[in-house]
């Protein structure tokens, strides 16, 4: 429950500072979470990135002010963080379907994007198979690329397709997808495809070694076709298991582990590993 309280506290902070130039890092720092974990959790539980949420709220509030007051368009644009009327008009039109000047006319229909409040809703009796396992430090040989929370769900599957199309799986088996969590408040974070160092004789060009520290891991079993099955499991881990468990996340590596077989099959087996510690 503390997990949900922290996110609601973050939403309240964003709402209180909706006209200020705050960043994801500012919000994460306010609730004592890493920027990486805050952005990932917010996205998985709400379906929006932090940037999308704040942009939609600002444009919704701007539309209401234009409709109900005599404030100039340029003043509204500046109030909600747009440097020019042109950039504001473009964003406003894309969101509302009408221009800011049209929004001031009586009878104009505008979109409303309401403030979020997160709640825990218990549904059904769906089980989630997991185990807690201690592992010593190990190395992974991986091909890596940088992603952000906005693009990761579509671009990481493309990265896997490119990996197999280029025949890299024959060089370094794509047994693991490793997420290197950003610790310096960067918006982008590193994701690698590869396998444990012990299975690779020589490090191929374009690959690197990732040092995975010793951790206690919560390991979740995923059954279903990629990538939807594992993306859905990530949502359940953050939305169901973490809020109710006696564990909290450690800001470090997350790992997706893939078995042999047809990844498009409904009975394909994979795993999610997250480093944790007891509360």
Report on the structure:
The chain has 279 residues and is of the alpha+beta class. The chain has two domains: 102 residues, Arc Repressor Mutant, subunit A; 149 residues, Regulatory factor, effector binding domain (Multidrug-efflux Transporter 1 Regulator Bmrr, Chain A), CATH 3.20.80. The protein has nine helices and nine strands. Strands 1, 2, 3, 4, 5, 6, 7, 8 and 9 form a nine-stranded antiparallel β-sheet that branches. Helix 5 packs across helix 6. The radius of gyration is 22 Å and the shape is elongated. The model has no long low-confidence stretch (mean pLDDT 92).
Highlighted features:
279 residues; alpha+beta; Arc Repressor Mutant, subunit A; Multidrug-efflux Transporter 1 Regulator Bmrr, Chain A; nine-stranded antiparallel β-sheet; 9 helices; 38% helix; 22% strand; elongated
Task: Briefly summarize what is shown.
This protein has 9 helices and 9 strands. With 279 residues, it is of the alpha+beta class. The longest helix has 19 residues, at 50-68.
Secondary structure elements and pairings:
Layout: H1 2-16, H2 24-30, H3 35-46, H4 50-68, H5 73-79, H6 85-96, H7 100-103, E1 130-135, E2 138-147, H8 152-165, E3 176-180, E4 189-196, E5 208-212, E6 215-223, H9 228-244, E7 247-249, E8 253-258, E9 269-278
Antiparallel strand pairs: 1-6, 2-4, 2-5, 3-4, 3-8, 6-9, 7-9, 8-9
Helix pairs in contact: 2-3, 4-6, 5-6
